[in-house]
Write a sequence for this structure.
DNA sequence: CACCAAATACTCCTTGACGAGTACCACACG
DNA sequence: CGTGTGGTACTCGTCAAGGAGTATTTGGTG
């Protein structure tokens, strides 16, 4: 019965997989991860790292091996993974792959508050986002094909592929939405414009009226409650 | 110069937009947000709420209006938004709409560590994920169209539309990836299988060799450094 | 050879998120 | 008329994340 919140920080999982290769001291783990560009997909900073390692040791998933003092440098403690640790990492990673989890995205929040912005500003923002997305997609595409040409097997670029797929979908959605707002296709856009029309004081009733209806929103299965 | 980390918690933005409608006390804000299902897109719990409100007051974006004690209940402090607050919320929301930010997704982390799992387990996990995604997409689609039939304008369901678009893209990607692993299309899958082949002790050299190459990964513009 | 920048290998401390708990009241139910 | 359940309106304590700092060593440059 490992406390469930123990599976919250992916950095811990990354540490486990690193130690699976060979015993290392925390800083070396960080170097390895950075060297393989894992910090692009997993939040990594020294502040958290040592805390995570400590917690893994407390949970017996890793074990201190030796504490060496090379020269007069601060001492380095080398850790190795335990059998329990190997099993935990396998379980955890499997779960991470197999079950989708609810993520709270910044842009999702933005969209849910969009009516708080005048339609024109919203539209301008969406256009700007679309442009930025185009640039980003092109950049990453370039970097990925460059890496492939250098001989990096596709197996090690899956994260980038995935994120690219999501970005493309987002770009698609943003463009469609912008078009729909502009052309008046968007149901509700008429009231929206009226709130911000000169003289048209925002009648709060419109918003309040939607309260009950919104309550019927998706209440899809929480993955956190599993 | 508002400290940049002040723009980290979207709940604060949600509070600002709520107070734009009318002055409220924190608990009422929470009720409003829950009533409109914002908690599906914005992390909301009472523990954080009061901290956020306090910080907003300290930054002069909202101001305490009155502290009423109805009956012998705990006192309720009503807050209203200030002019600075209105401007800040407009700025913040615009920025959120206009500029994509790097998100650290669980599944992204999983994919980046995928080689730590035997290919068969990885494949099984991906298949299971695909199934879950199909179910989730169907559920939310149902809920959204139901809400639409009840008269909810599309303007208030944009978040769901967006998340659905992302989920569809993810499903697409997962299915393609599963197929490619199975059919051996995936470059690197051969070494991958060999690491886990019976007797084939994991030669660490393969992994280490990719280190340098991986370093050439996307170093696309950090949105945090802007 | 003096000096400065960068790398090494961490530690510390401040925010801030979150869950659990609390005290009070209203209303229904037997 | 007691009791219990659910809503109201918060408070508190814990724990983790993350940035900034620190002390030492290595390597390069004028």
């Amino acid at each position: 019965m490992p406390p469930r919140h123990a599976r919250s920080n992916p950095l811990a999982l990354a540490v486990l997989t690193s130690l699976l290769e060979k015993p290392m001291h925390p800083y070396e783990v960080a170097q390895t991860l950075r060297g393989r560009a894992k910090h692009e997909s997993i939040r990594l900073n020294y502040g958290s790292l040592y805390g995570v390692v400590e917690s893994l040791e407390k949970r017996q998933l890793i074990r201190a091996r030796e504490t060496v003092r090379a020269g007069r440098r601060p001492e380095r403690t080398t850790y190795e993974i335990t059998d329990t640790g190997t099993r935990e990492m396998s379980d955890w990673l499997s779960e991470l792959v197999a079950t989708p989890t609810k993520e709270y995205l910044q842009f999702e929040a933005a969209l849910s508050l969009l009516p708080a912005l005048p339609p024109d500003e919203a539209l301008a923002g969406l256009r700007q986002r679309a442009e930025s997305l185009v640039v980003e997609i092109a950049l990453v595409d370039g970097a990925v094909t460059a890496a492939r040409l250098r001989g990096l097997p596709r197996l090690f670029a899956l994260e980038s592929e995935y994120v690219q797929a999501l970005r493309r979908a987002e770009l698609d959605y943003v463009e469609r939405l912008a078009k729909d707002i502009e052309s008046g296709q968007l149901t509700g856009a008429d009231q929206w414009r009226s709130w911000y029309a000169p003289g048209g004081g925002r009648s709060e009733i419109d918003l309040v009226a939607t309260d009950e209806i919104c309550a019927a929103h998706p209440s899809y299965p929480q993955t956190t409650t599993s």
